[in-house]
């Protein structure tokens, strides 16, 4: 059984079926109406002929009746023409006049019938249909009958009946198809609010839990579902808020014990143990700092009019991490644009993203190699190293929080790249990860170019 998941598809299929059935029923109904109309036209014509014949009846002096037909009517009822026939019957059933060869009545006379009767009969293989009217002429009651051989019926009526389906019946199908197209347009317009709601729902991410589905223009039948979804989003938003608050509170609470621990470690008598513990404390402090960064970014918003100098931000970060790089046997190089490169965004957040990329590159670059900052005039900054590079399988994983290639290795916590990704999302920027031809990885941040800061 074929299933149609789209509402419009279901409506269209059902309408096509209805159109086909309606087309057949309408054609049958129109055919029946045409048959009735044709029969009425025929009966009226036969009655008019019978009335015309009765007008030519006249009494003779001897009390009998005479039928004085003009030449036009004589030709109409002539045997060679053979299309029409007449008969005049008295109240005793005797045939007074008849156009038939055997001078017999056309229909059986029903004395108890109405003044006007429409009758059908068969004479041999011929189907005869006509009218019988009762008249009083010269004090005598007679029945005047006029009939037509249906095998030789009116040419106009024949054409209408024969060509009905070809010229009239099939008109109904295009009309119904036009109505179907109009119906589809109406349904699409009626379902447009649902399409807009689905587009809005696609924008909902863990970083945008404040978005809600529009409710005003939603059809009444779907409103309970939209309301339930919005309430579920409210609960999720509350859950994310509590999680962010917990992360920030936990990080704040850890700062004080770490500061105290750092002070006490410095008083130890064994310098080797003190140095090792001091490195561990610094690593823990960095994790706490990154947790605070994450909590801050979750609630951070950027002013659309805010502009930052990407070249200046990169130069400041390069100067900041240079001592760390030299201490670990690496060098820092700032390449590319030397003039200001203005992009849309917050300068402090951009520097934070570049610093995380730089620290990550320094950590993975081999000793005696250079970590390069390349600033381009189109609003792109790239951090390049000569490390092991990033495999295709890992390029999506590296932005997950706390993900590390080797969890047994000392070093990063797996939060730096997730912070970079969140900053990029806030700025409408994109991150591109690729391996360099000469070895190593390249992380590129593509920001939105700006014309420059507004003058005071």
TrEMBL record:
Domain Histidine kinase, chain residue ranges per copy: 249-451
EC number from the UniProt entry: 2.7.13.3
Record GO terms (molecular function): phosphorelay sensor kinase activity
Pfam family, one: HisKA
Known catalytic reactions: ATP + protein L-histidine = ADP + protein N-phospho-L-histidine
UniProt keyword terms in alphabetical order: Kinase, Membrane, Phosphoprotein, Transferase, Transmembrane, Transmembrane helix, Two-component regulatory system
One annotated Gene Ontology cellular component of this protein: plasma membrane
Record-annotated HAMP domain positions: 188-241
Subcellular location: Membrane
Domain of life of the source: Bacteria
Membrane topology: Multi-pass membrane protein
Protein name: histidine kinase
Organism: Bradyrhizobium erythrophlei
PROSITE patterns: HAMP (PS50885), HIS_KIN (PS50109)
Enzyme class, first EC level, given as a word: transferase
UniProt keyword Phosphoprotein, yes or no: yes
Gene3D superfamilies recorded: 1.10.287.130, Histidine kinase-like ATPase, C-terminal domain (3.30.565.10)
InterPro entries, alphabetized: 2CSK_N, HAMP_dom, HATPase_C_sf, HATPase_dom, His_kinase_dom, HisK_dim/P_dom, HisK_dim/P_sf, Sig_transdc_His_kin-like_C
Transmembrane segments: 12-34, 168-187
């Amino acid at each position: 059984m074929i299933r149609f998941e789209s509402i419009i598809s279901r409506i269209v299929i059902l309408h096509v079926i209805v159109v086909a059935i309606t087309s057949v029923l309408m054609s049958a109904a129109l055919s029946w109406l045409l048959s009735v109309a044709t029969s009425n036209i025929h009966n009226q014509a036969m009655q008019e002929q019978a009335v015309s014949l009765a007008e030519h009846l006249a009494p003779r002096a001897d009390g009998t009746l005479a039928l004085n037909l003009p030449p036009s009517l004589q030709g109409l009822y002539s045997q060679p023409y053979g299309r029409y026939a007449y008969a005049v019957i008295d109240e005793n059933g005797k045939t007074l006049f008849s156009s038939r060869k055997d001078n017999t009545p056309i229909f059986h006379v029903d004395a108890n019938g109405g003044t006007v009767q429409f009758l059908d009969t068969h004479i041999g293989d011929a189907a005869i249909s006509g009218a019988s009217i009762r008249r009083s002429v010269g004090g005598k009651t007679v029945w005047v009958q006029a009939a037509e051989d249906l095998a030789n019926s009116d040419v106009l009526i024949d054409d209408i009946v024969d060509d009905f389906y070809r010229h009239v019946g099939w008109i109904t199908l295009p009309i119904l198809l036009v109505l179907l197209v109009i119906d589809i347009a109406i349904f699409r317009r009626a379902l447009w609010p649902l399409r807009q709601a689905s587009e809005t729902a696609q924008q909902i991410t863990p970083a945008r839990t404040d978005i809600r589905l529009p409710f005003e223009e939603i059809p009444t039948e779907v409103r309970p579902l939209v309301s339930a979804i919005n309430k579920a989003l409210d609960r999720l938003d509350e859950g994310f808020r509590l999680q962010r608050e917990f992360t920030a509170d936990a990080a704040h609470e850890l700062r004080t014990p770490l500061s105290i621990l750092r002070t006490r470690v410095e008083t130890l008598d064994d310098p080797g143990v003190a140095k090792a513990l001091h490195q561990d404390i610094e690593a823990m402090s960095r994790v706490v700092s990154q947790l605070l960064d994450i909590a801050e970014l979750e609630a951070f918003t950027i002013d659309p009019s805010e502009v930052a100098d990407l070249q200046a931000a990169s130069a400041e970060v390069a100067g900041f991490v240079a001592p760390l790089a030299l201490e670990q046997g690496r060098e820092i190089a700032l390449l590319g644009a030397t003039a200001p490169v203005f992009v849309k965004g917050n300068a402090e957040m951009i520097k934070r993203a570049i610093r995380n990329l730089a620290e990550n590159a320094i950590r993975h670059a081999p000793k005696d190699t250079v970590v390069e900052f390349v600033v381009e005039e189109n609003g792109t900054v790239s951090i390049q190293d000569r490390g092991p590079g990033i495999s295709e399988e890992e390029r999506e994983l590296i932005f997950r929080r706390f993900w590390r290639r080797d969890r047994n290795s000392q070093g990063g916590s797996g939060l730096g790249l997730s912070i970079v990704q969140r900053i990029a999302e806030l700025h409408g920027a994109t991150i591109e990860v690729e391996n360099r031809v000469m070895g190593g990885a390249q992380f590129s941040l593509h920001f939105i170019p700006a014309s420059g800061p507004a003058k005071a």
